[in-house]
Write a structure and sequence with these properties.
Layout (H helix, E strand, L loop, with lengths): L8 E6 L2 H13 L5 E5 L5 E3 L2 E3 L1 H11 L16 H8 L10 H15 L4 H11 L5 E4 L6 E6 L2 E4 H7 L6 E7 L8 H8 L3 E6 L4 H9 L4 H7 L4 E4 L2 E2 L2 E2 L4 H7 L6 H8 L5 E5 L6 H8 L2 E5 L6 H13 L6
Parallel strand pairs: 1-2, 1-9, 2-5, 9-10, 10-13, 13-14
Antiparallel strand pairs: 3-4, 6-7, 6-8, 11-12
The structure holds ligand FO1.
């Protein structure tokens, strides 16, 4: 699909790695400014006195081609002198900040301390990295994803990185969500009269999408316009492509399946895109979750896979629920 053949604007909700793959596909098949990605900031935290926004940085690196394809986070061709030097000072090394990556954390922290909003800093960074799509945080106010586990309540990065997602999850909270205001750029994109499609990218529904949906007003904004809401399943044949989604679903007493994710989004979405491996469950899904499903190749290994899935999702814009 050429960039000119899709009329109207697109909004994508995304967390980190999985969501960023589809966001990249959409960015590549749409024209500059046609796509706005609303990004989860529940993973944000302060480390070494720096404000770290992991999911925003995954989007920045992925859409600018600076991402490290193996690690899935941080910059490619990274060096680690800073972390070695911090180790010599006795500082902990469980959260790795590469020398190149450090520039974004230092510059973001400086700008925030100077009074800029996270939205403004993010817009400066995406323009500086030559990204045509708009990237906005879900909120400029602090929201902290906290994971209730059998080891107690853990901040997100302690659960995800320090403890490698090993603790058993019994619940998830988004501290500060009730007081958080929808970021101006997110509200504007969702109210844009040219908005033709809303995409919930295949990020972890419980850890990465739910914090975005927890920002007051966001759910209503998703349903307010005419644009259909299409979600892409992060679960393929009962497995997560990457990360703790399936493990977490089991621990939360849910079946790790695409059908369960559809039920999680029921009432919010018009269409649910499942992998061809899960095509067989259409009837059950329609019955169970009241959500219409479409089967497509959703495993994104290459840039072409990302662009093909993006084209398929864009093609659903005309389908009314
Ligand atoms: N993930 C890791 O597993 N280990 C790390 O040391 C690590 C460092 C890191 C630094 C900056 C950044 O933006 C992300 C980083 N991540 C690391 C990934 C991060 O925990 C995840 O990207 C999200 O929080 C979950 O999507």
């Amino acid at each position: 699909m050429s960039t000119l053949s899709f009329p109207g604007k697109v909004v994508a909700l995304s967390g980190g790695i999985g969501g960023a793959k589809l966001a990249l596909g959409l960015d590549r098949v749409l024209a500059p400014g046609q796509l706005t990605v609303i990004v989860n900031t529940g993973d944000d935290f302060r480390h070494f006195g720096l404000h770290i926004s992991p999911d925003i940085d995954t989007l920045l690196y992925t859409l600018s081609g600076l991402d490290d394809p193996v690690r899935g986070w941080g910059r490619r061709d990274e060096t680690w002198t800073f972390m070695r030097a911090m180790g010599e000072l006795g500082r902990e090394g469980w959260f790795q900040l590469g020398d190149g990556d450090l520039a974004i954390h230092v510059e973001r922290t400086r700008r925030l301390a100077a009074g800029e909003t996270l939205s403004h800093v993010t817009d400066f960074l995406r323009r500086q990295l030559g990204i045509g799509s708009v990237i906005v945080p879900m909120s400029d106010d602090p929201v902290a994803t906290q994971v209730e586990t059998d080891e107690g309540r853990l901040d997100f990065q302690h659960y995800f990185v320090r403890r490698h997602c090993e603790p058993r999850v019994t619940g998830i909270d988004f501290a500060g969500a009730d007081e958080a205001r929808l970021a101006p750029g997110a509200a504007a994109a969702l109210a844009d009269p040219d908005l033709a499609l809303i995409v919930i990218c295949p990020s972890n529904p419980y850890l990465s999408v739910d914090p975005v949906l927890a920002v007051p007003g966001l759910r209503a904004a998703l349903r307010a316009g005419r644009a259909p809401v299409v979600a892409v399943s992060p679960i393929i044949a009962g497995q997560a492509v990457k990360g703790p989604t399936a493990k977490m679903m089991t621990e939360l007493g849910r079946v790790p399946s695409a059908a369960e994710v559809a039920r999680h989004y029921a009432g919010l979405i018009d269409l649910f895109v499942v992998d061809e491996a899960d095509a067989g469950m259409d009837a059950h899904m329609d019955a169970g979750a009241g959500v219409r499903t479409v089967a497509a190749p959703t495993l994104m290994r290459t840039l072409d896979d990302r662009m093909n899935l993006a084209r398929i999702v864009l093609g659903l814009a005309g389908v009314r629920a």
